[in-house]
Write a structure and sequence with these properties.
Number of strands: 6
Organism: Caulobacter radicis
Protein name: YdhG-like domain-containing protein
Strand order of the largest sheet: 1-2-3-4-5-6
Oligomer: single chain
Largest sheet: 6 strands, antiparallel
Helix content: 25-40%
Radius of gyration: 15 Å
Structural class: alpha+beta
Amino acid sequence: MKAGATGEQPQSGVEAGKLIDERIASLGDWRGETLARVRALIHEADPDVLEEWKWRGTPVWSHAGIVCTGETYKAYVKLTFAKGASLPDPKGLFNSSLEGNTRRAIDIHEGAAIDAAALKALFRAGVELNLSKKGRSKTPLS
């Protein structure tokens, strides 16, 4: 793997999963619970998802390319979809980073309900887009 601009090596697989576990545990509040819930939904949506740890501590979920990242801030958990502007969002989950031509994000605030079915559909759409762009199998995720 290539080192990032900071010289830090990106992590993937089991090691990245462990680092994400540690992040969730270290938060110790609603943000950790929210990140854990989102992570579980992502794995339900795509059992073949690859977990990565990049950019000095950002959880990343990939399949044929980055689908989304999970950042934690004091007031919210942010899921940024790398190609969100190209994804259908019939349930209106995207509520942040709406001005750009590429990314879209979902800011999840304390106490906010997560529409599990809509989030999983959005993640699957991100995977399908990545697969179509990479010329890989266009077999839909089940």
